[in-house]
Amino acid sequence: MYKQLMSLQQLSRRTISSSARRQVDNMVKEKQKLFQADNGIPVHLKGGAKDAILYRLTMALTVFGSGFVLYELLSAAMPKKA
Predict the structure, then answer these.
(1) Number of helices and strands (H, E) in the chain?
(2) pLDDT, tens only, 19-38
(3) In 1-82, where do the E strands start and end?
(4) Exposure check for the chain: N or C terminus, fewer CB within 10 A?
């Protein structure tokens, strides 16, 4: 029983330590070149399609929220007569 426990402990230690050693490529220089390029694209859209989708979603939510606030303000300013 003790040997099984020790082998299980070694196995778990090995998998945890080996998974933590994965090499991650340093992409900072490439990202700096991408975002500093003078190509006429605003910096908040230089990340690609994902940035464009997030930008459009944010703008749509902003417009919808502003319209809803105005609607609620108008409905509060003009109460319905009973």
Answers:
(1) 3, 0
(2) 555 677 888 999 899 899 99
(3) none
(4) C
